Automatic annotation (TrEMBL):
Biological source species: Pholiota conissans
Domain of life per record: Eukaryota
InterPro entries reported for this sequence: P-loop_NTPase (IPR027417)
UniProt name for this protein: Uncharacterized protein
Origin organism lineage: Eukaryota, Fungi, Dikarya, Basidiomycota, Agaricomycotina
Amino acid sequence: GQSFRKEYSQLGILRGKLPTNISMTIASATLLEHILDNICSELQLSKNLAIVRLTNACPNVALSVRTMQHSDESKADLCFLIPPGATSPDDIPMTLIYCNQRKTTEECVDRIRDWAAKQGINVSCIAFYHALIGQVRK
């Protein structure tokens, strides 16, 4: 859609210069029907194009929301992530934590690593991911 990235609207120009037998793949995690229609129009895609829709349902992923009991600065509400008695990375359930700011993400990881280290756990299993990490980590 036009509200996402203006540069994408120029793909129609590129599409027009390519032979008609060249395939094009459009992927999106959240492509609404009216936006798909707009994209098809902008890129002058054939009316008989193949649309593949896959679910993003992940039965092995659960959402958990917790009320904070401690100050934000302490990050103590995250200590449950390192279970009592954990001694290795295998004892820590795979967990994703979403933060609104990169700085908060890094602060959370630092604190969780502190707790893991106190239990003798190799902290390399605890990492953050955000837009400014290097290509090697990505």
